[in-house]
């Protein structure tokens, strides 16, 4: 459904997830229904924030690695000089 951008299957999948015995899966389905338009757009549109999210996660990891052990200058160097 996600790789082939088939938003038509989303409602069927959510209904199946809501009827399952798994509490966490029902909770996920309920959350996806609350923002159904955004989820549908994410499944159908070509645009993605994946690269931005990847950079944010990389910066957070670098920050965690140096938490309370390094100053701003080292953090800045790691971000700017990272591969």
Automatic annotation (TrEMBL):
<dbReference type="InterPro" id="IPR002560">
    <property type="entry name" value="Transposase_DDE"/>
</dbReference>
<feature type="domain" description="Transposase IS204/IS1001/IS1096/IS1165 DDE">
    <location>
        <begin position="7"/>
        <end position="67"/>
    </location>
</feature>
<protein>
    <submittedName>
        <fullName>Transposase</fullName>
    </submittedName>
</protein>
<dbReference type="InterPro" id="IPR047951">
    <property type="entry name" value="Transpos_ISL3"/>
</dbReference>
<dbReference type="Pfam" id="PF01610">
    <property type="entry name" value="DDE_Tnp_ISL3"/>
</dbReference>
């Amino acid at each position: 459904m996600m790789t082939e951008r088939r938003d038509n299957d989303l409602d069927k999948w959510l209904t199946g997830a809501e009827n399952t015995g798994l509490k966490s899966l029902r909770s996920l389905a309920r959350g996806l229904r609350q923002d159904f338009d955004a989820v549908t757009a994410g499944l159908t549109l070509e645009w993605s924030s994946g690269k931005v999210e990847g950079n944010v996660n990389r910066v957070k990891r670098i920050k965690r690695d140096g938490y309370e052990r390094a100053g701003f200058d080292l953090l800045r160097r790691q971000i700017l000089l990272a591969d």
